[in-house]
Structure formats: C-alpha cells, structure tokens
C-alpha cells in the first residue's frame, strides 16, 4: 500500500505563527484598559467591552468556520482568515471613538476565530491520537507566546499613551503569516487538505453537525468544562494588569511583563508535555493543573508584595495549560468524523465563556474589587478541574 506524501515541515510552525498573532489580538487590550478608559472618558468596566465583544464574535464565529473548514479545506480557510485579520486589525488602529473601536473589535474577533480551532482540527486529521497531544502542545507555543507578547506590548503601548500600536503590529504579523499559509496550502498533499465534499444546504448541514456533537455525553462534558474554564479564568485575568497597577502602584508595562510569565509557564508545559503526560496521565494533568492554577491565581490577587505575582503568574500558566491542553486533546477526538465542527464547538464554548466571564467581572468590579474577582475565579476553576479529572479517570 503506497504511503501518503509527507507534509511540509513548515506546516505546523506556520500555524503556530498564526496562533501567535491570534494570541496578541486576544490579550493586547488587557493592559490598555486604563488608557482606553481615560482616552474615551468611560469607566474601566465599560472599556473592558473591547475584550468582551472580541470574545463574543470569536466564540460565535467558530460555529461557522468548523463546517467551512471541513467543506473547503482547513488550511485554506486558516490562510484566508489570517489575511482578513490583517484588515480588521488595521481598522482597529484607525478607530476614532469607543463605539467604532467596539464595532471593529467585533469584526476582528470574527476573522481571527478560524485560526486556532481549525489548526487543532487539521493537526487532528494528520497526526495519530497517540502522538497528538505533544504536537498540539508544540503548536500552542505560538498562542502561548502571543498571549505573553500581547500583554507586554499592550503594557508598553499604554505607558507610551499609544494604544493603536499593538493593532498595527498584529496587522503586520497576519499579513506575513497569511501569505505564507496561502503559499504552503498549494504544496500540501491531498490527504492533508482535509476537504470533505458536502451535498445540500450548508446551513442544514452545519446544524446537523452540531446536533450530532451535542448528542454525545462526553462531548457535552468537554464543552461545558471549556465554557466554565474560559469564564472563570479570563474574566478575572482581564483585570490582572489593572489590579497590579492600582494596588501596588507599578507601571502598566511592568504589570504586562509580570503577566507575560503566564505564557512562559505555558511554554514550560509545552516543552515537558510528553514527560508530564507519561507520568500523570490525562486525569493527573487536569487535576494537578487545576490545583496549581487555582492556588496561583489566588496568590496574584492576595499577594502583599507585587513581585510575588511573578512566580504566581508563571505557575498559573503552567497549571492552565496542563488542564487546557488535556481538554483540547479530548476535543479533537470527541467526534472524529466531524472534527472541524467538534473543535470549533469546543473553541466557541471556551471563548463564549471568556466573553461571559469578562462581562460579569466588569459588572462586579465596582462592587467587589479585583482581588475578590481573582479569588472567586480561583475557587471556581478548582471545582471545575477536579470534576473533569474525576470524570476522565472514570472514563
């Protein structure tokens, strides 16, 4: 039997670079919130809508991109979405009012939505399950470093009173990466283009795909866990820079650098994921990841000295990716014959959870303060992680 043609070595690294741009898009606005609040004359909670609307659009758009990727080829859709994200980032940089910025951030969330879930689904198509988790972890290095770079760049831009600069940087990244992805797509062997011809109405097919996934008990658990994880972590997370700035008096650039250590914790997991998986298994990874994440998030909120947030941020990143990577790997296998739709549903739940979390946190902020938000998120994440770990072991 003839062996399939090899996949170009640059295929996964290019996807990781696209995820890097997506990560910056997601988190660059976090340290900018005090500056945006001052620039547009609105409360901090209102300024946080630039994060909420991005997450809402990102979450809803997943539902369409999954079936599109299955129908026209995941790699091609990712390439086109990266180029579209270049355009929406430029529109964000050109915004002249908060309502206009919110509108284009909504578009930016929609165009970026295809990149990470379809990349995960494409990796699921071409990599066997027993080798998939380490490959996914290496792919996610791009997103991890993007999240870290986003908060750092956003912090420096806020201190320099130049909130448009991060969006210009994102546009340049997406332009270069999108062109590279489009060129590489033409060199992919047929089995890696992941095209599944579909007859009939695209909308009816999409609804049928998601009905099938929602009927699977394990899929429902994974999706609910992703939703709660996104809300309980990223609701408080969006205000960490503001917390460190207001409570400890440090600059937003330094606060962004502290949060950047969250990404380094994720990078440490990616480098050691194979050994950690062999030692702890999926149940142990999700359990101890949740414990580490919860303790670290609470420490950031309660630390009496700002520098204690540095090791706590690193450990929070390590714990989060231990838990989240286990969820992602399960998402790629919960409906293999509908992998694009399944992973998109997973990502949609995760980012809709983020949108809900940031929205609720913004409403509570004036009443409970940032420290209480971080502690509440920590306790909720601990409960979610322990429940998922128990169910993994039972399964």
Automatic annotation (TrEMBL):
Keywords: Cell membrane, Membrane, Transmembrane, Transmembrane helix. The chain crosses the membrane at residues 43-63, 75-96, 102-123, 135-157, 163-184, 221-244, 250-272, 284-300, 306-323, 343-365, 371-389. It is a multi-pass membrane protein. SUPFAM superfamilies: MFS general substrate transporter. It is found in: Cell membrane. Its main location: membrane. Residues 11-395 form the Major facilitator superfamily (MFS) profile domain. This is MFS transporter.
